[in-house]
Amino acid sequence: MGRHARGGSAARNKFTVIVNSLEVAALVAVAALSAWLLAPLPAVAVTAAIAIGVLVSRRNAWRFALSVLDDLPATALLVAVPTVLADAVLVPLGLARPLEVLLTGAAALVALTLARTVAFAVVRRRRKDGRDHLRALIVGSDEAGTRLGSSLDHGLQYGIRVVGFVDDDRPLLADLGPQLGSVELLPQLVDEHRIDVVLVTFGAHRDDAVVDAVRELTGSGAEVYVVPRMFELHQRNKVSEMVDGIPLQRLRPISHPRGAWRIKRAIDVTVSAVALVMVSPVLAVIAAAVRKETGPGVIFKQERIGQHGVPFTLFKFRSLIPVGGEGDVRWNIDTDTRLGRVGKFIRATSLDELPQLVNVLKGDMSLVGPRPERGYFVERFNETIPGYRFRHRVPVGLTGYAAVQGLRGDTSIHQRAHFDNLYAESWSVWLDVKIAFWTISQLVPKRAPEAVLPVPSPPAEVPAPPAPMDDAPTTVLPRLPQHTSVPDPDAVRDAPTAASLEITHEITLPRD
């Protein structure tokens, strides 16, 4: 794994270094020229801000296809923002004139475009010489997969060398590369063949098997691209690339930057500490009520499973006194006759979970994340619920994506695992903020709107039909054919209705 990670990282880093260095050099030249011809302050301010944007953004990350024209809108935006800000700040202060700022920005745009053109030409030349190539596996050997493999093999400018194909029981033409194994072996094959890029297309494999195999690649360093369904209708966007008319949608890596996780932890410590101080009177009242109802020992301690499967001790207010170890294997106590008024109330309002703020402060949990479960049920769900074991890739939490979707209580474990994994694969600090606001909004009681029923109008009088005249022609009804039959009223009455049909549904488990 280390060897392939170093090779792939080196090729990606060379790409970024080549483009970044040429663009920064172009900006330095613009700054010097603008300072000499126009004014030093706007020249330095605008070009320095643009250079920071070049270095911190992902616009110069490794890619398959290289197009200066495709990047031109993003380049223009990168230049426009610092230019407009400099114009709004420096001009009113009398430190620059509008024309000086605008000319500096225009020169920076031209310089970046030229530098990018030269950088891409250098990268293409290196790739055609067989340098800086990434090693790739193609999952799926249907038409899209074989076409993609052929295009990458013949198009050296893409910077990809296809090592082989992965599929389940599907023969493959020999000139397109070897079929290395089934989808279940994908993590092992990525490690064995030092793979840098995994391209998921269509084939004989099952989609759920591919999902599990791709999730197993977390931490491998391999980037994953997926050919979307009905890709003929696909529209290009900033996270997709095009290879010979086949779109490749890049999956965001699950290994999030350490800096972002540090921000998450800092928020957890700050909010939990402040919250514990603010709700301390509430905690004292609940503790007194629980002690009066259930006796000494108001805090219930239970082992739960946290991130990466590591157990920890979770704190809750005690609702009742459990007998022996029933709390570790009994799923739900909401209907237990031993529950008193206090126990029912704190469980219904989730006030029994307030002591988990201490778990958040200790680092056992986060404010936002999948809800922690007991080890007994984790073992069962890992064996029976698809994808359940992958939910522990992120810290468990006080509230989570599944919880704000209403997936608590008597709800599907399959659904919970789906939203927990969706949270893990799309996590960001902003997603945590949104989940926190959604949680607060669900705690605020909402008054149901009163139903406004329409007032029925009185029925209109229907005039009686006129009496037939004696000389009116007699209407002769046609006789029914002999084969026409009239339904038997008893048969109609005894016919099965929707209510009498057996309706099956998924068996769900109640609240944790």
From TrEMBL:
A GO CC term assigned to this protein in UniProt: membrane
InterPro entries cross-referenced by the UniProt entry: Bact_transf, EPS_sugar_tfrase, NAD(P)-bd_dom_sf
Any GO molecular function: phosphotransferase activity, for other substituted phosphate groups
Region entry Disordered, spans: 459-512
Regions crossing the membrane: 24-56, 101-123, 266-290
Matches recorded under Pfam families: Bac_transf, CoA_binding_3
Gene3D superfamilies: NAD(P)-binding Rossmann-like Domain
Keyword entries, A-Z: Membrane, Transferase, Transmembrane, Transmembrane helix
Subcellular locations according to the entry: Membrane
PANTHER family found in the cross-reference section: COLANIC BIOSYNTHESIS UDP-GLUCOSE LIPID CARRIER TRANSFERASE, UNDECAPRENYL-PHOSPHATE N-ACETYLGALACTOSAMINYL 1-PHOSPHATE TRANSFERASE-RELATED
Record protein name field: Transferase
Source species: Pseudonocardia sulfidoxydans NBRC 16205
